[in-house]
Amino acid sequence: MARAIKDGLVTREELFIVSKLWNTFHDAERVEPIVKKQLADWGLEYFDLYLIHFPVALEWVDPAVRYPPGWHYEGDEIRPSKATIQETWGALEALVAAGLTKSIGISNFQGQLIYDLLRSAKIRPATLQIEHHPYLVQQELLNLAKHEGIAVTAYSSFGPASFKQFNMEHAAKLTPLIEDETIQKIAAKYNRDPSQVLLRWATQRGLAIIPKSTREPIMASNFASIDFDLSEEDIATISGFNRGIRFNQPSNVRSTIPFPSTTPIHLL
Ligand SMILES: NC(=O)c1ccc[n+]([C@@H]2O[C@H](COP(=O)([O-])OP(=O)(O)OC[C@H]3O[C@@H](n4cnc5c(N)ncnc54)[C@H](OP(=O)(O)O)[C@@H]3O)[C@@H](O)[C@H]2O)c1
Fold first, then answer.
1. What is the DSSP string of the chain?
2. Which terminus of the chain faces fewer neighbouring Cβ atoms within 10 Å, N or C?
3. Cβ neighbourhood burial of 74 (10 Å; 0-12, 13-18, 19+)
4. 158 lines ligand 1 (CB under 6 A)
5. DSSP strand E in 39-162: where?
6. How far apart are CA 218 and CA 243, in angstroms?
7. Closest ligand 1 atom, CA of 215?
8. Which of 141, 125, 146, 131 is nearest to 210 (CA)?
9. What is the mean pLDDT of residues 39-63?
10. pLDDT tens digits for 169-221?
11. Ligand 1: which residue has its CA nearest to atom 8?
12. 223 lines ligand 1 (CB under 6 A)
């Protein structure tokens, strides 16, 4: 991207570049140094949007020792940090003041924590990035975000597809949404690909989408998902797939988490 800007293919202003703060950098004093490293790695001077990746604070890992640090401190051990969301958010607000990012937001937060954050935030989160697909519709969370003026971005718009690489049993057991008969029937009606129907369902629900692909024709197809409209009835049919299935959550890391509870944690 830095090369494209340097070669004049695009200007920096034409791009909207988003990055995220990983869990091991939640302690306030760790935030600015890691953002500066990320910017240096990208060859950029600022991000347009910078998000807290998960509302989970883990012990700092020196980037000189391991980068990216991942979930585990050593072996399968996960070490929490004491940083609160308020502390981390304050450090993100300082990034805006320092010109290192234009705006800040959150990811994988649920309602209660959003309300808690809003109580002390001087800058309100611009966006909330969440896992969102027909198996995880989250209407109440969308209502809350709308009411609070927080734009919502969907990731994993195709459901289980992006989690199969992690050998998740429940991802493998579910019908891939792109292959689902009902989604395929709706797609045929509009002369579109099932993937475009899934993306349009999300944008018609008011979300931004960020599908990724390494294949150019697929990128073009994903881009071309907003020039048709699904009927209200088809939107409702797709929303009816909801099973509250979330793939991306900390309890999936299956480790010995030293929180004061023996029950599985469902932080998200
Ligand atoms: N905030 C978070 O916690 C979080 C978590 C996960 C992802 N994200 C973000 O979300 C964005 C998307 O990532 P994702 O994991 O959700 O991936 P995704 O968009 O669900 O895509 C998953 C895979 O599906 C394939 N694909 C994409 N479009 C397709 C289409 N039209 N038809 C068939 N296959 C298609 C791609 O493979 P090919 O390359 O082979 O085409 C891609 O690797 C990324 O920017 C990522 O950073 C955020």
1. -HHHHHTTSS-GGG---EEEE-GGG-SHHHHHHHHHHHHHHHT-S-EEEEEE--S--B----TTT-SS--S-SBTTB--B----HHHHHHHHHHHHHTTSEEEEEEES--HHHHHHHHHH-SS--SEEEEE-BTTB--HHHHHHHHHTT-EEEEE-TTGGGGGGGGT-HHHHHSPPGGG-HHHHHHHHHHT--HHHHHHHHHHHTT-EE----S-HHHHHHHHTTSSS---HHHHHHHHTT--------GGGG--B--SS-SSPP---
2. N
3. exposed
4. yes
5. 47-52, 101-107, 127-131, 151-155
6. 27
7. 41
8. 131
9. 97
10. 777 778 889 999 999 999 999 999 999 999 999 999 999 999 999 999 999 99
11. 155
12. no
Written as six digits, the tokens of 156 are: 């994993």
Amino acid present at 217: P
- Residues 128-178 have pLDDT tens digits of 999 999 999 999 999 999 999 999 999 999 998 777 666 677 777 788 899
Q: Where is pLDDT greater, at 257 or 111?
A: 111
pTM: 0.93
Region 2-252: CATH code: 3.20.20.100
pLDDT tens digits along 75-125: 889 999 999 999 999 999 999 999 999 999 999 999 999 999 999 999 999
Residue 86 alpha carbon to ligand 1 centre in Å: 30
pLDDT, residue 254, reads: 56
